[in-house]
Design a protein that fits this description.
The complex is a heterodimer of chains A (463) and B (360).
Chain A (H helix, E strand, L loop, with lengths): L8 H4 L9 H13 L2 H68 L5 H23 L5 H29 L4 H40 L3 H25 L5 H62 L11 H13 L12 H8 L3 H30 L3 H9 L5 H32 L4 H25 L3
Helix pairs in contact in A: 2-3, 3-4, 3-6, 3-7, 3-8, 3-13, 3-14, 4-5, 5-6, 6-8, 7-8, 8-9, 8-10, 8-13, 8-14, 10-11, 11-12, 11-13
Chain B lengths: L9 H11 L3 H10 L1 H19 L29 H7 L20 H9 L2 E5 L2 E2 L3 E3 L6 E2 L1 H14 L5 E5 L5 H6 L5 E2 L7 H4 L3 E2 L4 E3 L1 E6 L15 E5 L3 H8 L5 E5 L2 H9 L5 E5 H8 L5 E4 L6 E3 L2 E2 L4 H15 L6 H9 L18
Classes of the chains: A mainly alpha (463), B alpha/beta (360).
Organism (chain A): Streptomyces hiroshimensis
Protein name (chain A): Secreted protein
Keywords (chain A): Membrane, Transmembrane, Transmembrane helix
Chain lengths: 463, 360
């Protein structure tokens, strides 16, 4: 249609320097080719093929990175976050158990001693694992260093407490309180910081996995638009409705685009479910479990300190801390958990009966624990019956310790349930990415071939 | 966190009491502030005057209840002390807080009758002061110098040293526990001071304590003097020791901890070089660690007394009689025996109990 123009050749010749760059010559050739219909067809074919392949490549790349993030949620960051929660919990458990064993004095049951040792061993082992995985995070590394330095110091203080206590010296109680202070002021905050850092990494993996692959989607739309334009042009010029090659290319692009949209939406919803019902539940339940451990530790230390440490208002510091902890855990002294307390939030986050039941049971057990605690305090503070009070706290039957153990077991059950919920939803989400990257690559390459073949058909008509 | 053990919590207690339920110190402060409190202060002053005018002397407990004293009553819910009783138990000018009421063993007054009717003496004690009042974790038994004294009182009143209910009363609660009638007596390394004799009644002094320095054996620190230069000293928070070290640091730096025993933990861990503490409690610490010792002389004088409610004058006289018996007999006295048993190993050089002082 358009007339061939001496594309700047004669005009440009006099100014052109003898050593013109090669790419410019190539460009000139393309320009020259573009003025003829076969030349234009070649360009169109090439552009379509390149666009399709680019679409496939970007799709494969973006899907692969999301799929890797989803993998990382399930395989790395969630387990690491769970490990950090285990470090946090086992340290709190060790502290509480040390105080229980201390109260039992020379008759410290073997099981109590073993539980303490297991807690310390687990924390040490998980710390090694966490530090192997903490290359990227300075915050996590600093926390791990604090924990590694503080843990042997803590166990040393506990052993000093134990040795003095077995000799019947009150100095043992002072050592135990000092150990407890180190735990509360240094180790537990560091463990909590590590848990938060790992949970933050989990959150960012979630975000990476869930973010829409905008580049691939946009490129897909552009490819479809280009294919439509090329086919319309073909129709206008030849009056042929279909060009089989380009039709195949269009079908491939549509399939890839739909697959991408649907697959990603499914993955996103699976991951969202796993986050809402799994990861958040797990977080709140972990907090609740550690909260109950600390309240138990405070209760034990109240019996160890016997009024040796007072708060600012003149009340026993450990009793005050116990009450604050119970306030955060359930609030009030009877009935259901108060709004916004940890167990209330855990209950609200549980999305089925299987998740709610253990939380409800834990709330009932906490109520019973609180009642028994009041009885123990009455025995100790008003009746001066320390031995009965001690039995009420660390005895086997009808003791606060029995209630606490039940609370711990129920929360453990709830955690196990939420962990499996999380895993299932996350696996479902992750599964939606399956084959998408490879499929997109293959289909777009086929589409590109189709486009080339389609254009080649038209081109052959010029020979 | 605040200190509690033994007697080191005086400053805290004073603050606590001022906030909660006392008059004399707060009175002055309040009077400066507002009209209504000035009226209250005037009422208190009136009550004090009334008490001054009322007959005093030998047998105040038998006098008619003088209700004029009621507005000055200390604790809400406490048995309102009678003005006459107040006069007898609390001296107006505090020059010699140690002076107590003369002993009497004759007829039982209302407080002694109350204890007899109950069949048990309720004693506020410490459970953490080794050698003074301590619960041994092995057998759950309370023992120590203070506990022996409580048993002697129970034996005298009830005929059985075992008829005692021991309540662990923290330092900050000692005075309120007496004022609310929760306990009959407090035997808990409690120092007799002018501040306190306005709030509770004390027996005669049963032990002479004082602040002293404790260090590991072989330490260059020799007393509360310049040998402390450059050393790190530990005291419990809010204690007399803390006040003294802040007044005269002798070149030392200070670490305060919630409880006096925490200082021994820090000393053993090498975090401090010396402890300044009540020597009675220091003896309890030295008994737990043979490698530390008290050095120098006590640089304050702090007499310990058994504390009771101001209104229980008959019980004060009865306890003073028990103490007379306890001290009697020279080197073979019950007092000396208790000293030998609990304290002599770590608090050497005491040859006799402190002499009693009476004000009537």
């Amino acid at each position: 249609m358009s007339q061939p123009q001496p594309a700047g050749g004669p005009r440009g010749a006099p100014v052109r320097k003898p050593a013109a760059p090669a790419w410019r010559e190539a460009l000139e050739r393309v320009r020259a080719a573009a003025v003829t219909e076969p030349g234009r067809l070649r360009v169109i074919g090439a552009v379509l093929a390149v666009a399709l392949v680019a679409f496939g490549a970007v799709t494969a790349w973006q899907v692969a990175s999301r799929s890797a993030a989803a993998d990382s949620v399930v395989r790395t960051s969630q387990p690491l976050s769970a490990d950090a929660a285990d470090i946090y919990r086992s340290l709190a458990d060790a502290d509480t158990t040390a105080a229980s064993g201390f109260l039992a004095g020379g008759q410290e049951p073997r099981a109590v001693r073993q539980r303490y040792e297991k807690d310390i061993a687990l924390a040490s082992r998980l710390l090694v694992k966490a530090s192997a995985n903490a290359e990227g995070s300075a915050a996590a590394r600093a926390r791990i260093a604090t924990l590694n330095e503080g843990l042997p110091r803590y166990t040393g203080l506990v052993e000093a407490a134990r040795a003095n206590n077995r000799q019947g010296l009150p100095l043992g109680g002072a050592y135990l309180r000092y150990a407890g202070d180190r735990m509360r002021e240094e180790l537990l905050p560091a463990a909590r910081g590590l848990y938060e850092a790992e949970t933050g990494r989990l959150g960012s993996d979630y975000d990476d996995a869930k973010s829409w692959p905008w580049a691939a989607l946009a490129l897909g739309a552009v490819v479809l638009g280009a294919l439509a334009w090329a086919q319309r042009r073909n129709y206008l010029r030849t009056n042929r409705v279909f060009n089989h090659g380009m039709l195949a290319a269009t079908a491939a692009a549509v399939v890839v685009l739909l697959w991408l949209v649907v697959g990603h939406a499914v993955a996103r919803s699976g991951l969202e479910t796993s986050y809402a019902h799994g990861a958040r539940s797990l977080q709140v339940l972990n907090e609740a479990r550690i909260g109950s451990l600390q309240a138990r530790g405070d209760e034990n230390l109240t019996m160890v300190a016997r009024g040796a440490v007072l708060g600012k208002n003149g009340d026993d510091a450990y009793e005050t801390s116990y009450r604050d902890g119970m306030g955060r855990l359930v609030g009030g002294s009877q009935g259901p958990a108060r709004a916004d307390t940890l167990l209330d939030r855990a209950r609200a986050l549980a999305d089925d009966a299987e998740g709610r039941d253990p939380v409800d049971a834990a709330i009932r057990d906490v109520r019973e624990w609180q009642q028994r605690h009041v009885q123990a305090r009455t025995l100790a503070d008003d009746r001066g019956d320390y031995d009965d009070a001690l039995r009420k706290v660390i005895g086997d039957k009808d003791s606060t310790g029995e209630s606490f153990d039940r609370v711990d077991t129920e929360l453990q059950r709830a955690l196990a349930h939420e962990q499996s919920e999380f895993r299932q939803a996350a696996d479902d989400g992750r599964g939606a990415f399956f084959g998408l990257a490879a499929g997109a690559a293959v289909l777009t390459v086929l589409g590109a071939a189709g486009a080339v073949v389609g254009v080649g058909r038209r081109l052959s008509e010029y020979r | 966190m605040r200190p509690v053990q033994g007697d080191e919590g005086k400053a805290v207690e004073a603050v606590h009491m001022a906030g909660a339920r006392t008059k004399n110190r707060t009175k002055k402060r309040l009077r400066m502030r507002a009209g209504p409190t000035a009226v209250a202060a005037a009422v208190c002053a009136l009550a004090a005057t009334a008490a001054f005018v009322l007959p005093t002397g030998g047998a105040p407990a038998q006098g008619p209840p003088a209700r004029a004293g009621a507005p000055a009553a200390p604790a809400p819910g406490a048995p309102a002390p009678e003005a006459a009783a107040r006069e007898a138990a609390a001296p107006q000018q505090c020059t010699d807080p140690e002076a107590s009421l003369r002993p009497s063993g004759g007829t039982d007054g209302p407080a002694v009758q109350r204890i007899k009717a109950r069949g048990r003496l309720i004693a506020g004690v410490d459970q953490n002061s080794y050698r003074w009042g301590y619960r041994n974790p092995a057998d759950g038994e309370l023992s120590g110098f203070d506990i022996d004294l409580v048993r002697a009182v129970a034996k005298d009143i009830l005929g059985d040293p075992g008829k005692v209910t021991y309540l662990a009363i923290p330092t900050s609660r000692r005075i309120s526990a007496l004022q609310t009638g929760k306990v009959d007596i407090i035997a808990r390394t409690m120092t007799i001071t002018c501040d306190r004799v306005r709030q509770v009644a004390f027996s005669t002094a049963y032990f002479e304590s004082g602040q002293q320095v404790m260090v590991p054996k072989g330490s260059p620190v020799t007393a509360f003097d310049d040998s402390l230069k450059g050393k790190k000293v530990c005291t419990s928070e809010g204690s007399t020791a803390e006040i003294k070290v802040r007044e005269e640091p002798h070149g030392s730096s200070l670490l305060t901890v919630p409880n006096q025993l925490d200082c021994l933990v820090r000393l053993q861990l090498g975090e401090v070089d010396a402890i300044v503490n009540d020597r009675a409690l220091g003896a309890g610490q030295a008994a737990q660690d043979p490698s530390v010792q008290l050095v120098g002389k006590p640089f304050t004088t702090e007499p310990y007394g058994v504390a009771m409610n101001l209104a229980d004058t008959d019980l004060v006289r009865r306890v003073n009689k028990v103490l007379e018996d306890y001290r009697g007999g020279g080197a073979a006295s019950l007092w000396m025996k208790a000293y030998e048993k609990w304290l002599a190993a770590d608090l050497k050089g005491i040859t006799a109990p402190p002499a009693p002082k009476y004000r009537d």
